[in-house]
Amino acid sequence: MAKDGLSIGDLAARTGLAVSAIRYYEAQGLIDPWRNAGGQRRFSRADIRRLSFVMIAQQFGFTLPQIRAELDRLPKGRVPTKADWARISTGFRAALDARIDTLTRMRDTLDSCIGCGCLSLESCALYNPGDRAGLKGVGPRYLMGDRPGA
Amino acid sequence: MAKDGLSIGDLAARTGLAVSAIRYYEAQGLIDPWRNAGGQRRFSRADIRRLSFVMIAQQFGFTLPQIRAELDRLPKGRVPTKADWARISTGFRAALDARIDTLTRMRDTLDSCIGCGCLSLESCALYNPGDRAGLKGVGPRYLMGDRPGA
DNA sequence: GTAATTGCTAAACCTAACTTTAGGTCAAGG
DNA sequence: CCTTGACCTAAAGTTAGGTTTAGCAATTAC
């Protein structure tokens, strides 16, 4: 783990990710390591932060393609500065706000529905919250759902 | 679609669900139709509301096993009343509150992080929000340190 | 009475985000 | 030098929540 880059194992230890996950992220274009003479992956220290970003973005509900799109907005050719990361992070803010908004509206609707106990397709407001689509940002299937395997 | 129950196609039309989804829900124990002489499924009108509940609960991020657990709390042997449904719906309220809470805390943390642009594993507060567990349901993926195999 | 729907089951397929496995290669310590 | 552990690739497996397909039976429409 000298000056010529970190091995995949080093990076896994630094980030807490599984080695297999890191390889998968490479396949998805989230990181782009070089290879040493023997064909093994070598990562720069900046990749630690890059993977940190990936993990945080995932917590916020972004998909890997979406995260990749964000990462692609980082300057190519030089190591991203704190300011670069901060700029990208503001994008999270809007997504979070939207998500909180939708959930809050849902809760309010639910409040007005608990009294009636209708849950009826024709009349219940829960079927017409207006912007259920706002929740789609989280994913098509596991829409806000618990993780698979729970 | 006479007095002897609705066919699966009728139920699909009433709920907007796909026929295949209804059969899947039966396999998951969410509904329990009887069969007619020819072996075809027959559903009661109460199943329309039952499936409505399933759909709403899914929007709220519950998994099918969780929804099944809620449904199992309905009185067995009689058609559930509005009061029964209302009682169950209050359970949603707590779950939604928790989810909104967690997201709000995340947003606040993010706000304090945007300025520093750190995203550093050792120091960034985003890695220590305190109750990431409450977020189960926000992301499509396993949470950090919560992988099935690890 | 027969043709067109609709329904039946079992099994395979789908996506996202990974993990596991199989079979081999590279690198570091003694 | 040799062994052990880390690494490599490709492919298959996993989970949730379904959909699709194949081949056949029941119902409904005319």
UniProtKB/TrEMBL annotation, chains A, B:
This is Redox-sensitive transcriptional activator SoxR. InterPro entries: DNA-bd_dom_put_sf, MerR-type_HTH_dom, MerR_fam, Redox-sen_tscrpt-act_SoxR. The keyword Iron-sulfur applies. PROSITE patterns: HTH_MERR_1, HTH_MERR_2. It comes from the Bacteria. The keyword Iron applies. The lineage of its organism: Bacteria, Pseudomonadati, Pseudomonadota, Alphaproteobacteria, Rhodobacterales. Residues 5-73 form the HTH merR-type domain. The gene is soxR. It holds the Pfam family MerR_1. Keywords: 2Fe-2S, DNA-binding, Iron, Iron-sulfur, Metal-binding. NCBIfam families: SoxR. Transmembrane segments: none annotated.
